[in-house]
Amino acid sequence: MKAIRRFTVRTVVPAQISALTKLATNLRWSWHVPTRALFESLNPELWEKSRRDPLALLAALSREQFQELAADPGVVARVDAAQESLETYLSEPRWYQGLGAGAPECIAYFSPEFGITEVLPQYSGGLGILAGDHLKSASDLGVPLIGVGLLYQAGYFKQSLSKDAWQQESYPLLDPDALPLTLLREDDGTPAQVTLPLPGGRVLRAHIWRADVGRVPMLLLDSNVAGNDDAARGVTDRLYGGGGEHRLTQELLLGMGGVKALRVHARLTGTAAPEVFHTNEGHAGFLGIERIRELMDASVTPEPLSWGEALAAGRASTVFTTHTPVPAGIDRFPRGMVEHIFDGGLAPGVPVGPILELGAENYDGGDPGVFNMAVMGLRLAQRANGVAKLHGVVSRGMFSGLWPGFDVADVPITSVTNGVHVPTWVDPDLAALARERFGAEVLDGPDWSKVYEVSDADVWAMRRRLRSALVDDARLRLRASWKKRGAADAQLAWTDSVLDPDVLTIGFARRVPTYKRLTLMLRDPARLKALLLHPEHPIQIIIAGKSHPADDAGKKMIQDLVQFTDDPEVRHRIIFLPNYDIAMARTLFPGCDVWLNNPLRPLEACGTSGMKAAINGSLNLSVMDGWWDEMYDGENGWAIPTANTGAGDDERDDIEAAALYELLETQVAPRFYGEVVAAAAGAAGPSQPHSGGLPAHWISMIKHTLADLGPKVSANRMVAEYVERLYRPAAESGRAARAANHASVRELAAWIDRVRPAWPAVHVEHVESHGLSDEPQIGESVLVRAHVNLGPLAPEDVSVSVVYGTAGDSDELLDTRVLELGSAEETGPGRYQFSADLLIDRSGNFGYGIKVLPRHAALANPAELALITTG
Ligand SMILES: *Cc1c(COP(=O)(O)O)cnc(C)c1O
Predict the structure, then answer these.
(1) Contacts of 195 (CB under 8 A, 6+ apart)
(2) For 40-67, what is each residue's pLDDT tens digit?
(3) Looking at residues 149-164, what average pLDDT do you find?
């Protein structure tokens, strides 16, 4: 029989241990090992049955069991201690509180997905995990951040395999009442609500759920509420579900609804309004439109701003992070679809034409019929960044069409390299070793440099424990997967002995878009087989990853791979584990000796799984892409060479796969086994470094990785960089914009209105140089004079600079520097002469050119208006 009605009965926890409810709802437990240990100790068996979910555990405990626990003074004392630890964590001053005045009071962080714990499956991959790690590190650092996202009824799909290895998706529905969430309510108890007007008089309503990520609140909008029509209810049905209008409506709810939710939250809690708005990828970009709407609405802003003024004001305090150089990763909607929905009154008072222009691909190669979310993101944010140094370079090139005439290097997109939340991703065993050997504070900061004091034997024993734990977990998962594929228990005895806790273990797990090349390792199956079955130094490989449900090419790759792993000859050495998620990841990263990454360079914006492996002492074997391009140093792993030079796709894959096999065979495996084998055979000569039969070189690479990469890949480093380089400047710009009733943006917008139409008249008429000898030498200086016609503009409106450097073969300037020319003298109507002494500071071919840019104190970057004149 089916239930006609269902509801969730919340557990009543006895008063003596009632703090358990808060401990279970504040997601700090997901990275705080002692709190997890407390829950486990309440009832280890139920803990496993509840999939290590504290709320599920509380729901599963019976009244009698609760009474027993409450009567146990030991339990009560431990609950009290955990509660005190949480309260201290929530209230004590942390890093941010030492920054002094001027740091933003509140920062809103928008993301379509948040990967915080497997208990809240609201993520699909790297973008979401990164967002989760961002919130957690913000909490640890005391940064007053607030997350904004959507609550998907089914989250992302669960993956299993059919008998013939085809990916199967299922979408189990989540019950928000059983999740660590609280519904935001008005004072009268009714659920707080945001609404968006849709075309045809429809209304999209959403409730707001709040999760607590340590100190950081996270607001999730849920459209599955009474009063919505079916389509509106379905807006938050699943993550990256439908395409087209469904996706557009999701993003409108996330961006515009998200701003409204923040206003409701601030009103109900009496907390500060965000001073900075950060959008994690373009999906939440419509937040800028809602902020413009507020500024143009007399009922919100008593002396409302014009479109241009509101745009300038919104931009000042907005940060946009682009995450992908893969075009398919960027949302593009039909322009007409966006027009239709805004024409329907979504942003009353805001002109629709300019909104459409924000997303227009009006540059070489752009599609006039398209509304591009990344392009809008860049136009709505005064500050933008990519997520690794190389990705910064790639993004500047990719979006350079928006800045015609500028050198690619001057495109105003910087980079902040991603990081990972160390307490979440360090294995508890490794954390315990660190605590015992060099103090508990290690979990508060990623200082692993003391690992050099730990003996090689202890490090190696730890690595074996982690590898063994992975092997155990993998066997269980493999067996479960085979049962789903239709095998009977009697056929599965072999799964109990797959993998070997003493064999070099290589991991590969990530989403399965084509560019990540899941199947590169299959390029030469015979060669792979030989590596797996090598008599002296075999390898074993554990693979996982979900393909996007609509991506048949990805599913085919999974199928090819799984069919290879099904071969009885190799199935004990290579396995595919379905349903990659945070829970699997936490055993997988620490258990692998080597983390493999072979994307098509430069399509991996950053990649974070290798970082999570590194903080557990796994070594990376990766194409020089993303973070590895800037952090590989020769002793922390291996670089797979890239065959970029005009080779066709097939040829390139062949070359790179061959390089991968070669590295595994001649470098990685021998180093892992070499010294052990030699020592065991008594053949270790004095020239061979070893310490008691241990692979000394390998272990030194582990220590180096922990000590050196640890701090660099930490999300604390990342969040601190965002604070210093982006949030704080954005808050300052935002304050300047708001001051004196928005006086400065009113002035700025008027100035832009004057400068933009006048710009075509600006040109460099001629350039002279004086004082250069016949054979110029380093140290000589030359007087450079530029005659510039400014049309109707004044010299204060512009900056005129000489750009100088080494002149290349076709006169392009390399390795350039910039010197601003000053002392403008009027030489005729609209004509000015600018000059400066230029010091010749290098030998060889010296060259220079002149560039003229608009200048205004409120611009964060001289390229901001995308106006330039050169000569
Ligand atoms: C870290 C992580 C990812 C992202 O890994 P990339 O290397 O960035 O592709 C995806 N899924 C899970 C479960 C992760 O933990």
Answers:
(1) 203, 204, 205, 206, 260
(2) 999 999 999 999 999 999 999 999 999 9
(3) 95
Q: Looking at the domain 441-710, which fold is it?
A: Rossmann fold (3.40.50)
- Cα dihedral 385→391→392→393 (10° resolution): -160
Ligand 1 and 125: CB distance under 6 A: yes
Cα separation, 278 vs 730, whole angstroms: 10
CATH superfamily of 103-410: Glycogen Phosphorylase B; (3.40.50.2000)
Ligand 1 pocket test, pick from 114, 124, 510 with the greatest ligand atom count within 8 Å of Cβ, gives: 510
Is 608 near ligand 1, meaning CB less than 6 Å away? yes
Say yes or no: CB of residue 585 within 6 Å of ligand 1: yes
The full set of domain ranges for the chain reads 15-91, 103-410, 441-710, 762-870
Do 841 and 780 touch, CB atoms closer than 8 A? no
pLDDT band at 690 (very low <50, low <70, confident <90, very high): very low
Taking alpha carbons only, the member of 833, 799, 797, 793 closest to residue 818 is: 799
Residue from 608, 616, 625 whose mutation best tests the ligand 1 pocket (most atoms within 8 A of CB): 608
What single string gives the DSSP state of each residue in 830-863? TEEEEEEEEE----SSEEEEEEEEE--TT-SSTT
- Any atom of ligand 1 within 6 Å of the Cβ of 612: yes
pLDDT digits (tens, 9 = 90+) for 181-232: 999 999 999 999 999 999 999 999 999 999 999 999 999 999 999 999 999 9
Q: Are 759 and 847 in contact (CB under 8 A)?
A: no
CA of 775 to the centre of ligand 1 (A): 58
Q: Is 823:800 a contact under the CB 8 Å cutoff?
A: no
How far apart are alpha carbons 146 and 150 in whole angstroms? Answer: 14
The runs of H, that is alpha helices, within 705-727 are: 710-712, 715-721
Residue 862 is encoded by which pair of tokens?
């001289």
Given this chain, do its domains 103-410 and 441-710 carry the same CATH topology?
yes
Topology classification of domain 762-870: Immunoglobulin-like (2.60.40)
For range 460-465, the mean pLDDT: 96
Q: Which stretches of 437-524 are assigned E, i.e. beta strand?
A: 504-509
What is the spatial distance between Cα 743 and Cα 309, in angstroms, rounded to a whole number? 10
| Furthest C-alpha separation in the chain | 99
Q: How far apart are CA 440 and CA 431, in angstroms?
A: 9
Name residues whose C-beta falls within 8 Å of residue 147's C-beta, 6 or more positions apart in sequence: 109, 110, 111, 114, 131, 135, 213, 216, 217, 218, 219
Quick one: tokens of 715?
Answer: 């999300």
pTM: 0.95
